[in-house]
Design goal:
Residues 1-22 form the signal peptide. By secondary structure, this protein is mainly beta. The chain has one domain. The protein has helices at 3-20, 205-208, and strands at 27-32, 42-50, 58-59, 66-69, 72-75, 79-81, 86-91, 96-101, 105-115, 118-121, 136-150, 165-169, 182-188, 191-192, 197-202, 212-217, 223-226, 232-243, 252-263. The strands form three sheets. Strands 4, 5, 8, 9, 10, 11, 15, 16, 18 and 19 form a ten-stranded mixed β-sheet that branches. It is globular, with a radius of gyration of 19 Å. The model is unreliable at 1-24 (pLDDT under 50).
Length: 266
Amino acid sequence: MTRTTIHAGLLASLLAVWSAGAAQAHSPYLRPNVFDATNRDHVTVEAAFTEDVFNAEVVMRSDHFHIVGPNGDTPITAVTYLRDLAVFEAPTPVDGLYRLSSGAREGRAAKMYETPSGWKMVGEEDEAPPPGAELVDVQSITTADVYVVRGDPDDAALKPSGQGLELQPLIQPNDIVAGEDAPLRLLFDGQPVANAAVTVFREAGHYDGRKIEAELTTDASGLVTLKVAEPGAYMTQVRHRLASPAGAPTPYRSYTHTLTFIAHAG
């Protein structure tokens, strides 16, 4: 068996295990104070990591916060970092749709090892790897997005960047209505990602215990259609793992993307 074959088999195993445990790790999110910025020249946004959607636990730091709108792509440089979350103001100077983003954040490099019960991170549950365990290096890349609208929306902010993992709404995000279909497309470097798991979390789950609204899978063209039962705030989460490009600091990368949205009453 060649080294390439071994690595391909190892990656396939990692993908299966990681996908199954996607909802268990901290996830990034952005949450604006308003989703409709009509007659407002800015929105205020919190950024954090959480295991309980929109309940800030770990501050999110990024050198790539930005807002994409009808007036172009504007970096966000004035950010206040607290212990549990970051806060910043984003300009919404003209009518249109705006995409707020953390940008792609390179996280820490971690190591995993295989056990009879599956893959474990080094340091997980304070357990040391067994003697002779093969350690696999993985680096996390996380991105959090959210859309806000001012006045009449346009489509410029819906255009994907073509870089990294993106979940592109195929309708205006402010048109998502509880009980109705909302189509989205999952892309990686601009190409559709098929058979990917998309988890939808409910903010209300923090109070009633039903945290997951839906667990979906993209089709062969990267499309997924979500439908939420009730009005409120939600977050999609997708993870995508693959071998790193040549020259990267680790042989594998773990990409996570989240999209915050609200569903209106019908």
